[in-house]
Amino acid sequence: TMNRAKYFTLCVMVVLMQNCVTAQTKSVNLDRLFYTVTYRMPPIKPLTPMLFTYAVVVRATKSTEQRVSLGEVQDALIISGQEKLDQPDDAMVVATLSLGNLVIGTSNVKERKVEKKDNAGKVVGVDYFFSCVVEYSFEASYVVQRGTEILAENKRHYDPHTKLVYSSAEYTTRKEAADFWSNNRDVLIPELTSNNSLQAARSLGEYLSGYYGFPIVYTRNNILWTMHEKKHDENINFQEHCNALKTLIEAMTPEVGLDATNAELIEIIDYFKSIPEKYTDPKHKADTKLRYAAYYILSKIYYNLDDPINATVYAEKLVENGYDAKDGKGLIKDAEELTAILNRTTVIKTRHFYPEDYK
Q: Hey, which bits of the chain come out as E strands?
């Protein structure tokens, strides 16, 4: 009888342990692993030749010229990846930025009130804050030429009819805010003129860089899905491979991307490809989530390898897997956009390159 009781107790313990193990792996927690990517874009509308020289000419009305440094504005206009020359006559492309006048409109006092409440939520007082709000307009235009050919033109880069707004710091009395403009206008008008002139040059440079240059792009908050499930046997291995992949991706530069022949990267790819083969149960939620994470990561790897075909293959597998198919559709769209980027030119099929290689 004693042996039977021991045997029965042992059986119960085995069943309980099995149930415990099953419970431990019934679900898998996934965490976002954030990473930063750096790459270089080919031009949207490449010129022939793609690599060219350019010069910047800045013109200004008399009042604006007295308030800004035209040389500083000229330096602020940069076409990324292209060679800037001092003399317009020597350059293939000439960008002419014309700066108009800054015109002050109205100045008003803006009031903000903050209610003070006690612990019961009853209003026991009000604090008032005041700031000076100035409306003004600024005028600018540009024309970008290759010889007599106009590549880009905007007669109202900044429209004189568009109202811009400047707000001062907040004050505790209305009088301080009301006096702010009269006390500071002689300093602020040149400052606003200079800031808007520089912004006009920078925004024109960004526009021209996108269309005709090779802009460098930094993207943050990209994600990989890593495991966070201590009870799962795959947890440590999965995390280690995710972290190793993050290190490789973040080591990329605008000139040097991921190397598809790198032994470490090949091992990482093989590992994530093994996950769907190892965790195959279509009805087991933990398996489904692991397959989802693996397909997501594989699609991201090939996306960062500038391989939109394989990025799409694994995005489609993610959709078929069933768990969060919306993410798979998003990755397919990313791959389509990457294809369009790589098709901008007939020769640049990567987002990691030296522009001078295509001179």
A: 30-40, 53-60, 83-84, 93-117, 123-146, 149-158, 164-167, 216-227
How many C-beta atoms surround the C-beta of residue 62 within 10 A?
Answer: 7
Give residue 183's region: left, alpha or beta (phi > 0; psi -120 to 50): alpha
| Model confidence, pTM | 0.83
Helix (H) or strand (E) holding 185: helix 174-212
pLDDT given at position 183: 96
Instruction: Report the pLDDT value the prediction gives residue 217, as an integer from 0 to 100.
Output: 96
Q: Which regions of the chain are under pLDDT 50?
A: 2, 8-24
Phi/psi zone of residue 98: left (φ > 0), alpha (ψ -120 to 50 degrees), beta?
beta
Partnered with residue 53 across adjacent β-strands are 83
The DSSP bridge pattern shows strands 53-60 and 30-40 to be unpaired
- Can you give the pLDDT at residue 21? 41
DSSP 8-state code for residue 25: T
Sign of the four-CA dihedral 46, 48, 54, 60: negative
Classify residue 242 as exposed, middle or buried by CB count within 10 Å of its CB (0-12, 13-18, 19+). buried
Structure-token pair, residue 151? 């590549």
Neighbours of 217 (CB within 10 A): 12
Task: Please name every residue paired with 108 in a beta bridge, in sequence order, or none if there are none.
Answer: 133
Are 101 and 67 contacting, i.e. CB atoms less than 8 angstroms apart? no
Instruction: Tell me the pLDDT tens digit for each residue of 128-156.
Output: 999 999 999 999 999 999 999 999 999 88
The number of CA neighbours under 13 Å toward the Cβ of 77 is 26
Alpha carbons within 13 A on the beta-carbon side of 253: 4
